Amino acid sequence: MSLADTVSIAARNAWALTFGTGIGSPEPTPSTVLSVAPHRELRRYNGSGAQDPAVLLVPPLAAPAFCFDLSPEQSMAAFLRDSGRAPYLVDYGDITFEDRRMGFEDWIDDILPESIRQVSADRGGQPVDLVGWSLGGVLALLTAAADPTLPIRSVTAVGAPLSYDHMVGVRELRSLARLDGGRTATAAIRATGGVSAQLTRIAYRATAWDRELKRPFFIASNLADTATLERMATIDRFQNSLPGYPGRFYNQLWGRFMLNNDIGKGVVRFGERRIELAAVTVPVLLVGGPNDVITAAAAVRHGTTTLTGSPDVRYETAPGSHLGILTARDTTWTYLDKFLSDQE
């Protein structure tokens, strides 16, 4: 590329970033909406064969559902379709103050089971492979444990926190909570109806503070590299779309998971109800990230000690950030492809 071309591209990119509409634009993988209901829009990605096995993508709360379809190069949905599977996605939509009474039970007893049944019915009664990221992986595992009769063939959990004893900062939070038994945080969440989208976005950016500090230098260094700037813009769109948590859900997460580490003990309690991870009786793939600062790899690996009812629990590692391990084609996607092929 000539110097003139380099300067021209850099100038166009600089204009787009400062006065224009930004670099790049979303290119979602084509999909068809199968059903719409509150917090459970179900989509089927187009292009699969009638006999291709079904895979339901399960996002976490406080993350946009397009985490599985960030861009054409970072789309697990497109990868699954192109590898001979039929990917589906359940989208929870926005979380508002009106949703403050929603808790884990809404997902594991209603939203996800109904989505699984619809996907299975759409594929002529085939069992469904679940793939969840972050808390989506936890929700997928708890759903499988809560109702073994669901048509689930396997569960893959990427970056799923399966022991809060291994999570960064949780020990310090517990020390603070001991001062009042955690009541201040619980009351604050109840008063506000949950954790707002704005607070979620600030917290997520704080985990990558070095990226934020280096951002001006990064842009200046790559001003003539449109592809690199487009990848940056993709991450920015993701961060700017993070939704919040319902109040009851987050208080359960705070009390049962962070403070008491129910998930790490293998038995999650919601009131008088007990859900045991040992009740998961399908094969499970766990993927952790040694460089993941949100969910430590050890927190993911801990699932190999609690998922004792599964006939096959595999643990693999992938490089990158919390989001990066989800889009790791050469590791996570390769592990997933082999794991799903082994179930066929």
Summarize the structure.
With 344 residues, this protein is of the alpha/beta class.
Low-confidence sequence ranges: none
- The general outline is globular
Q: How many individual β-strands?
A: 12
SSE order, one letter for each helix or strand? HEEEHEHEHEHHEHHHEHHEEEHHEH
Q: Termini distance?
A: 48 Å
Radius of gyration: 21 Å
Give an overview in words.
- With 344 residues, the protein is α/β, with parallel strands linked by helices.
- Helices cover 44% and strands 16% of the residues.
- It contains 14 helices and 12 strands.
- An 8-stranded mixed β-sheet has the order 1-2-4-3-5-6-11-12, sandwiched between helices. It has a two-stranded antiparallel sheet with strand order 7-8.
- Helix 3 packs across helix 4 (135-146).
- The protein is globular, with a radius of gyration of 21 Å.
- The relative contact order is 0.14.
Please outline the helices and strands.
Elements lengths: L2 H16 L12 E5 L5 E5 L8 E5 L17 H7 L3 E6 L12 H19 L5 E6 L1 H12 L5 E7 L11 H8 L5 H10 L1 E2 L1 H10 L2 H13 L4 H14 L5 E2 H13 L2 H4 L1 E4 L2 E4 L7 E5 L8 H5 L1 H4 L6 E5 L11 H15 L1
Helix pairs in contact: 3-4, 6-10
Labels describing this entry:
344 residues, alpha/beta, eight-stranded mixed sheet, 12 strands
